[in-house]
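Human: My hope is that you can spare some time for a protein that puzzles me. I am handing you a single protein, as its sequence and its fold in token form. Could you go through the record with me and say what the backbone is doing? Take your time, and here it is.
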Amino acid sequence: MYAVLGETATLIDTGNPGEKSFYQLKSKLQEHNLSFKDFDHIIVTHMHTDHCGGVSLIQQEASLPVYVHELARPVITGGEAEFNRINQFFSDFLQECGADPAVHQHARKYKEEIWQNVHYVNDGDEVYIGGTPYNVLHVPGHSQTDILLIDEEQGITFVGDHIIPELAVNAFIEPPVPGSKHRPSPLIQYRDSLIRSKGRNLGRCYSGHGLPFTQHIELIDKRLAQQDARCQQIHQVLKEGYKNVFEICQEVYPHLKGGIVFLGLSQIQGHLDLMEVRNEVMKEERDSIVYKLI
């Protein structure tokens, strides 16, 4: 989360859902003689709960407009029906991987959260942060809604979770948009997004986790190389013969148990998508999706 002060004050991301996070943020702002009513609007870098979870409670205290990428619309407006559609997708995905949803699906309960005065942005749009214009760069991969907020003149970028020096970001499997049958291929998207952002003058980058950094080109090259290395590791696992995604995950990430197995499955499936495009693996559907080397 960032409170950016200039001609105006803008809040970037809102923290986790729930009153504990809300009051922690409120207290932190009070230390700097700020309240939620001092801000002009909220900008959400992507629709993960640790970044957008506080919107509803903040808007109950201060009727701030919120800016978020257009692909967030189904979740924000779809209510319980969209929540159930997403849950069903993840249950089906786990089964296709060879995992048991009863054991490995993270339990979620629907809780209605109504966002007011939502403005949807797209790639190339302009938003104001602290009174200064920033360019929106859509960088799907980590989520479908990830955006960078770039001021190339000042050399400042708010990167959300797109790139983080301290950790390699997961490209999460997500359901298709309503009305579509085909899910996105997030790692392929993420690599394309990394290459796009590599070509921009990001300057000093402020991420959603960790310290600010400046060497974004070197970091992106490192992440791309790590992804290629993971593909090679999966290639070695598949030399043993047919394996489903869950079996590969158990070999690559043996420490993952219960609901967090999805993190590993998402990583493995993303890399398999990439390897399939590269003609390094092929898949057959049996009881679940099974991959073998060509």
User: Anything to note?
Assistant: The CA atoms of residues 117 and 202 lie 29 Å apart.
